[in-house]
């Protein structure tokens, strides 16, 4: 019996990669980022110049009584991380309701650049520094965009090809579907991107899917897909052994991660 997988039989994995051009290349992106972030940088500069300490800058940005939309606050937090303290990552500082500003000041305040130095720098920013900072701030602006295109392509293809089934899940940005919230007896954490049901029996989940956008990830990160995929399979097998019910698992990928030999063999 030949147990060789289909993927491992492909001589050139690049032939099965779904190439999805998205975003803007350099130097075209420079103009877009400058237009988007220059106003935020200039307003951040004003905050710095009127503050007595770097901690005060952070307090102002995270003060919920200060009127600012979420995009502006997020941009200020990204500037703070890039220019004041790399220790205060944006994912943590944006959790204004869950983490107090004092947590960052008390524990990481010693890493903050001095307000004197900040004022000197922001009071004399050159055009090239504006450009460099704008590009840094917008580095991940289009993250996920490519994945949304891939998911939308797959949904459209699936609905046209398999009208006897339904596919559910966000085509673009949206929350994962927790399988344990819709499948009786499934107790493990199991967030998935889409589920497929039989139209003749809406209670029957025939497949669950995970969308992987490898071309936005580095080589080392692409390699970690194998372990994550194995964990999904293991939990599905565990559920089958317990309940006698099974479903297929679909791993949807644009493909660059497949060009890693280890991923093909697994």
> How many domain regions?
2
**How much helicity do the residues have?**
40-55%
Q: Strand order across the biggest sheet? A: 1-4-5-6
End-to-end gap? 18 Å
What quaternary form is this?
single chain
**How confident overall, as mean pLDDT?**
85
Structural class, from helix and strand content? Answer: alpha+beta
**Beta-strand residue fraction:** 5-15%
Largest β-sheet summary:
4 strands, mixed
- Large-scale geometry: elongated
Could you tell me the number of beta strands?
6
Discrete helix count: 11
Low-confidence stretches: 217-224
| Radius of gyration, CA atoms, in whole angstroms | 24 Å
Order of helices and strands: HHHHHHHHEEEEEHHEH
What does this molecule look like?
The chain has 266 residues and is an alpha+beta fold. It folds into 2 domains: 28-137, no CATH class; 143-265, no CATH class. The protein has helices at 28-49, 54-61, 70-83, 90-93, 101-108, 115-122, 127-137, 145-161, 219-223, 225-243, 261-265, and strands at residues 165-168, 177-178, 191-192, 194-198, 201-212, 248-253. The strands form 2 sheets. A 4-stranded mixed β-sheet has the order 1-4-5-6. Helix 1 (28-49) crosses helix 3 and helix 1 (28-49) crosses helix 7. Residues 217-224 have low confidence and may be disordered.
């Amino acid at each position: 019996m030949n147990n060789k997988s289909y993927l491992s039989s492909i001589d050139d994995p690049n032939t099965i990669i779904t190439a999805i051009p998205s975003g803007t290349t350099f130097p075209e992106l420079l103009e877009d980022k400058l237009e988007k972030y220059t106003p935020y940088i200039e307003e951040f500069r004003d905050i710095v110049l009127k503050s007595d300490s770097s901690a005060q800058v952070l307090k102002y940005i995270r003060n919920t009584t200060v009127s600012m939309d979420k995009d502006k606050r997020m941009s200020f937090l990204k500037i703070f991380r890039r220019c004041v303290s790399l220790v205060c990552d944006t994912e943590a500082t944006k959790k204004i309701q869950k983490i107090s500003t004092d947590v960052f000041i008390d524990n990481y305040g010693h890493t903050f650049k001095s307000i004197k130095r900040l004022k000197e720098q922001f009071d004399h920013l050159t055009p090239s520094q504006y450009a460099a900072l704008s590009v840094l701030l917008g580095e991940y602006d289009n993250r996920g965009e490519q994945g949304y295109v891939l998911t939308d392509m797959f949904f459209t293809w699936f609905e046209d090809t398999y009208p006897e089934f339904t596919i559910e899940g966000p085509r673009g940005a949206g929350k994962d579907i927790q399988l344990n919230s819709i499948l009786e007896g499934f107790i493990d954490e199991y967030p998935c991107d889409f589920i497929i049901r039989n139209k003749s029996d809406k209670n029957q989940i025939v497949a669950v899917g995970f969308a992987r956008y490898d071309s936005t990830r580095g080589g080392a990160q692409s390699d970690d897909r194998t372990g994550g995929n194995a964990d999904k399979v293991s939990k599905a097998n565990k559920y089958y052994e317990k309940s006698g019910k099974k479903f297929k698992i679909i791993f949807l990928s644009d493909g660059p991660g497949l060009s890693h030999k280890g991923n093909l063999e697994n």
